[in-house]
Amino acid sequence: MRITGIFGNLLCQIRLLLFIAVCVTIVGWTNFYMKDSTRYTPKYRTPVENFWKSPLSEKKTEENSQPPLVEQTSQKEEDLKICPILSPNLQGVVPLMFPPNLTLADVEKKIPMMRNGHYQPETCRSQQRVAILIPYRNRERHLLYLLDNLLPFLQRQLLDYAIYIIHQAGNDTFNRAQLLNIGYLEALKEENWDCFIFHDVDLVPENDYNTYLCDSEPKHLVVVCNATNYNSVYKEYFGGVTAMTRKQIAKVNGYSNNYWGWGGEDDDLYYRVQLGNMTVVRPAREVARYTMISHTRDVGNEKNEKRWELLKNVSKVWKTDGLNSCTYELLSIEHNPLYINITVDIGKPHN
Ligand code: UDH
Ligand code: MN
Q1: Quick check: is 125 catalytic?
Q2: Which of 84, 152, 268, 310 is the most buried (most CB within 10 A)?
Q3: pLDDT in tens, 277-328
């Protein structure tokens, strides 16, 4: 009896010990997993986010070896949810404003949330980081009107964007395409942009459902325009405003640098897109509508009579004439609140 009693007691104690050990283990593991899961739960990713974020972020080292000058994503920003592709703030057609006495100070007052030409939504992380590149010379009022209408439009779309004005110094013949190449090269020295929008200074979008995001193929955003009574121009038209990813642009070696004066460079890019085995996509014409601020042909941007000859040779030269042969003298880079002004000397046509 006594022996059984002693053993019974011991057995009880062992059971108690085992019970305590099991409890401690359970509490320990629960604690570990709870902490772990709050720290590492993968964020929910939409299919689009998977499409954009993974392939593009993998390309960071592949395409752009230079370290960004501006800090990339902060920890806080990383924690934000991805913005929806269609922002809840969209309003559709918003009447455009062209007030005759508008000044840059007025636009700055209206858009106080931009710093150094850059904007990031506060409440979410943008689908893509978008650099808007505007070839520019001597179009001050057009620029003011574009900023006044486009910046609120981009903010309603919840975009992380910057505005780059690429300003051709001097009075020699204008070269829109080379300025856009320079914009691409210089913008990538600052930040690792996912998407580039090549944007004429005088084209103002009318409907904010025309999203300034890149697609899986190069995207043409000006489907119809007041200048042509909202009729399509021609099937291959790829000018005015276009959106291409960093990779799509690199694949076609950017624009040709050889189009001096008006015309042809956009058709050349269209051919390059085809040579790169890509196709052009367009949003619905009801949405991709623009108002071109009316203007005459600029002095120094006369019709380029060589464009037809150049267009015959795209397939022969596209790999050697473009981003990889773009030379220029960088005169200044100014970070204004609403835009980054890059002034360059690109010289003049060789012959
Ligand atoms: N650009 C300038 N300064 C110039 C020339 C061109 O900034 O001196 C830029 C600007 O961004 C402009 C873009 O290049 O929007 C394209 O030039 P454009 O606007 O002259 O081209 P578009 O196709 O030309 O609009 C039409 C000119 C003929 C107008 C005739 C009026 N009926
Ligand atoms: Mn124009």
Answers
A1: no
A2: 268
A3: 999 999 999 999 999 999 999 999 999 999 999 999 999 999 999 999 999 9
Using DSSP's 3-state secondary structure scheme, residue 82 falls into: strand
Q: Which of 49, 208, 265, 267 is catalytic?
A: 265
Catalytic position from the list 15, 45, 115, 295: 295
Could you tell me the maximum CA-CA distance found in the chain, to the nearest angstrom?
117
State which amino acid sits at residue 153. F
* CA 240 – ligand 1 centroid, Å: 9
- Report the C-alpha gap between 23 and 17 in whole angstroms: 10
Centre of ligand 1 from the C-alpha of residue 287, in Å: 23
Instruction: Spell out the CATH class of 81-345.
Output: alpha beta
Render pLDDT for 259-279 as a digit per residue (tens, 0 to 9).
Answer: 999 999 999 999 999 999 999
Q: Minimal CA–CA distance to 243: which of 224, 222, 220, 265?
A: 220
Our answer to whether residue 115 is catalytic in this structure is no
Give residue 146 CA to ligand 1 midpoint distance, Å. Answer: 14
